[in-house]
TrEMBL record:
Alphabetized InterPro entries for the sequence: Kinase-like_dom_sf, Meiotic_Drive_Suppr_Kinase, Prot_kinase_dom
UniProt cross-references to Gene3D superfamilies, sorted A to Z: Transferase(Phosphotransferase) domain 1 (1.10.510.10)
Residues annotated as domain Protein kinase: 38-221
Any one GO molecular function term: ATP binding
Organism: Paenibacillus algorifonticola
Protein name: Protein kinase domain-containing protein
Residues making up the signal peptide according to the UniProt record: none
Length: 221
């Protein structure tokens, strides 16, 4: 990003978003809660650690703000440093602290998550899976450990490429089988039954699959 534009958006972010936003982590196992959102800003999504925001005048920049008391900002900053500039990942333009809040300024990734593709009946080509696989291999080559890679954290971009959206846990060294399990489901269920026809899957079915998967994984430990 051009330096003058970056300086402008850092100043605006710290003066408006970080001074006005009110967010809290009530339950560490649930998404953070945004109680106050300054004018001009939109909440793109809320995870267990942070909220992601975009300003109406800079739709290509996403600002990830960590909730007070939540760890992970330093680790995620390091992950983006190691990833550098790769087309399957966002780019971290700036990482800092202001008004008692830790934040990352990122290149916004746009598209549909694999989860949403299944919900809407959008065909997921095997090329997309291969591109995400290659991106995860690249992360391993940088000394990272792809973790928590599931259908809501990977995406088909607006220009039809495979993207990895959430890298916040890529420093965790313990094994994570989520992506391998998703690929098995893709090859054994999605490809034979869903890949040839555009057929939306109800959200209640997807939620049942998700809960069943969590139960199977937790009982196998």
């Amino acid at each position: 990003m051009e330096e003058k534009r970056l300086e402008k958006w850092i100043e605006l972010t710290e003066r408006t978003l970080l001074e006005g936003v009110k967010l809290q982590s009530i339950n560490h196992g649930e998404p953070i809660q945004v109680d106050v959102l300054p004018e001009g800003w939109e909440l793109l999504g809320a995870g267990n650690y942070a909220g992601v925001f975009v300003h109406r005048d800079a739709q290509d920049i996403a600002v990830k703000v960590y909730a007070p008391g939540r760890e992970g900002w330093e680790a995620e900053r390091e992950v983006y440093r190691r990833l550098g500039d790769h087309p399957a990942y966002s780019t971290c333009y700036h990482a800092s602290k202001s008004n008692g809040l830790e934040y990352l300024m990122l290149r916004r990734l746009e598209g549909k998550t694999l989860y949403k593709c299944v919900l809407e009946g959008v065909i997921i080509e095997d090329r997309i899976i291969a591109e995400i696989d290659a991106a995860l291999d690249y992360a391993r080559e940088q000394g990272l450990f792809p973790h928590d890679v599931h259908g809501k954290n990977v995406m088909v971009s607006s220009d039809d490429r495979g993207l990895v959206v959430d890298v916040s846990d890529f420093l965790k060294e313990e094994p994570c089988m989520m992506w391998d399990d998703l690929k098995k489901a893709y090859n054994r269920i999605y490809m034979p039954f869903l890949s040839k026809h555009s057929m939306p899957v109800p959200e209640w079915v997807m939620n049942g699959v998700r809960k069943g998967y969590r139960w199977v994984r937790s009982s196998s430990r």
